[in-house]
Write a structure and sequence with these properties.
It contains eleven helices and eight strands. The protein has a five-stranded mixed beta sheet with strand order 6-5-4-7-8, with helices on both faces. A three-stranded antiparallel beta sheet has the order 1-2-3, with no helix packed on it. The chain is α/β, with parallel strands linked by helices. The chain has a domain at 132-249: Ribonuclease H-like superfamily/Ribonuclease H (Nucleotidyltransferase, domain 5), CATH 3.30.420.10. The longest helix has 18 residues, at 235-252. It has helices at residues 8-14, 18-29, 76-88, 95-102, 107-119, 182-192, 226-233, 235-252, 261-273, 280-293, 299-303, and strands spanning 44-46, 51-54, 60-62, 132-140, 156-165, 168-177, 198-202, 216-220.
């Protein structure tokens, strides 16, 4: 059987019930057969309501335990349809759009579902960028009076890495950082780019230690050359930054607070790195893989200090 459905009709047939959705999650989570979440034993009795009872230690668990679906009050078939719908939106998905498309009872539920899915878009152990990679920072947020250079009072500083793919762009990585010091920028490069790759930056001092950490470092100082020169010398970074800001403004009306920005960056990265995919079913498959590999995110943990503000 194919790993994923190719059309909406195939999708509707394959995932018509919660039981069918649960069986599919079992194959994704345990491709080599069931493993007990407590003792690791590979034999279990299958019980009602999708529960498994380990034949070794007696532990009862479900395929959704330890995933983004844990403790959900939303039917799995609705979750699956939400994932198909999210992957069908070329320019990203909003909570209001999801609520209206699936008839979800409350905006809060739709918002929580989307944020859980965004957490699943970062695949554990994903391959690092390699080859020649441009790295630079950009600000996300409106204009700030009195801020100069890399200074900001309210805007978020986002560091961007983009692989060079001939004249085009390969894969990207994005991360919000506290500031533009080496203490923030160097760890991002280490976590995003394979050691030994050539990293191309401007002349900013925050990148001076790259060679000492095992990277080739190409510096292009931009002092006095103006914005046009920066765009020309690091063109991939500036295109990605422009597309990111346009996406945040167009899909989310610019109403993304810094409290949740990291997860929107993950969604943008997921979509950008799969922008050439013609198979929607593959995108659904990849997101479901991430969903069973990502731990639960209780609502209160997601809103955190942001209280009940939805962005």
């Amino acid at each position: 059987m194919d790993e994923y459905p190719g059309t909406l009709l195939e999708f509707e047939d394959r995932f018509a019930t919660d039981a069918l959705c649960r069986d599919y999650l079992c194959r994704l989570r345990w491709p080599d057969g069931y493993r007990c979440g407590r003792c690791g034993h590979d034999q279990a009795w299958r019980m009602s309501a999708g529960l498994f009872k380990c034949k070794s230690c007696g532990y009862r668990g479900s395929v959704t335990a330890g995933t983004i679906f844990q403790d959900t009050h939303v039917a799995l078939r609705v979750w699956f349809r939400a994932i198909w719908w999210v992957m069908s939106q070329k320019n990203g998905a909003s909570a209001l759009g999801l609520q209206q498309a699936l008839g979800i009872g409350s905006y809060r539920t739709a918002w929580a579902m989307l944020h859980k899915l965004r957490r699943a878009m970062v695949r554990p152990g994903r391959d690092l960028l390699s080859g020649r990679v441009e790295v630079d920072e950009t600000f996300v947020g409106g204009e700030e009076e009195g801020a100069r250079g890399r200074q900001t009072f309210r805007k978020a500083l986002v560091v961007v890495a983009a692989e060079e793919d001939g004249p085009g762009i390969g894969r990207i990585r994005l991360q919000r950082v506290a500031d533009a010091t080496a203490a923030s920028l160097i760890p991002f490069v280490i976590e995003s780019v394979v050691s030994g790759s050539v990293v191309h930056t401007d002349g900013w001092s925050g990148y001076l230690d790259l060679e000492a950490t095992g990277y080739g470092h190409e510096r292009t100082p931009l002092r006095g050359k103006g914005t046009a020169a920066a765009t020309e010398l690091l063109p991939r970074i500036h295109l990605v930054a422009s597309l990111l800001k346009r996406w945040l403004l167009g899909t989310h009306q610019g109403a993304v607070s810094n409290d949740y920005l990291d997860y929107y960056l993950d969604e943008f990265t997921f979509r950008f790195n799969r922008r050439t995919s013609r198979r929607r079913g593959m995108l659904v498959y990849r997101l479901l893989q991430g969903a069973v590999a990502t731990g639960p995110s209780p609502y209160q943990a997601m809103v955190g200090r942001a209280g009940d503000r939805f962005d």
